[in-house]
Amino acid sequence: MHLILTALGSYGDVLPMAGLGAAMRARGHDVEVVANPYFAPVLEAAGVDILPIGTVEEYHELTSDPDLWHPLRGPAFVLRANGAHLVRPLYELLDTKLRPGRTLLGAHTLDLASRVLQLEGRAPMATVFYAPISLRSMHRSPQMFGMLMSERTPRWLRRAQFWLADKLIVDRLLGPAVNGLLAEKGLPAASRILGDWFLSPELVVGMYPEWFAPTQPDWPASYTATGFPLWDRVGDDPAGGRLDERVEAFLAAGERPVVFAPGSAMTRSADFFHAAAEACRRLGRRGLLVSKYPDQIPDPLPEGVAHFDYVPFSTLLPRAAALVHHGGIGTCSQGLAAGVRHLVTPIAFDQFDNASRLVELGVARVLRWGRVDADRLYRLLDDLLSDDEAGETAERLAERADGGNGLGKTCEALEHLGRKHGLR
Prior knowledge:
The chain is an alpha/beta fold.
């Protein structure tokens, strides 16, 4: 079988597809992954071929745009940049790579081109989610910035908010590109594009375990949860996570550090890291700051606090005291697998929903990004690190985090769909 996976976004979007591609390739399938060429080393390390879309310069432009990390403007920015802007070039790329009778499409949340190809009958498609926020529900509703979605909110009001978001924002941003392409192909126009339209009626995969996001009664019948992918290999290490000698030396030099990681694409984290360094100083705790942008890091750092541009979380976090992060699903899953406590500083996108699920599980505190300062970080970390119940719960959940089984279960779901279509 020939599998094309689409990975539109940052490391958190590319790493799961790289891991899935590697797992499918190990099972004898031909695999290609659509991604920005910035991530070519990630896909090369996974042993899968990249189908480049966009340029490295465009990726840097996107990550440096101030709108990206705004709680309201950020989602609209991403819908334009990685959704509407890519519909046609992504369709044209996939169109040239399809192998009739062989190709299965594994579509990222913002991949709307694969859905058009599926509607044309050109190839079967699975919708692949990393986080449950993309699945709407009137039972346990996804938690989103600026929307009233608690259990206390009447269901009619939740439905109304989704309707307004679709009508006034989502369809206005995505509709022209999607419906222009659909009209050219003689297909009906789409509405409520990120409601039911973009979901594959044959297979929707949630790459997280059932205990993290229990299946809701109004989720699509084609939905299945498989488990966390837990893939973070970016180098040549066949074990997928050997620590740099400098990192290893730092970890060996003292007690477990608090790890601070505001996201791989976060270019505006100077205040966060200054607060982190000061909170560590007050706590008398060692700290490890993770960022690819050294200009965001205080200079000098307090004794016992160090900065590294990248560290594989699968290897680092089991040796951490706690994890302070933005709430991206990849970081959440690695933290759960490592059995650490979380302090989540959500900014936008799926981060508020992921944070709420960690709190419900009993392993996290939450501090909104706009309220981060040294005083609040100090108080919340002091409380979190002294919470023995949270530590015990985190350890129990680590035993349920699936290890490598999540990728295997996802492979099985894709293979089942392929066999249903007689793909060879």
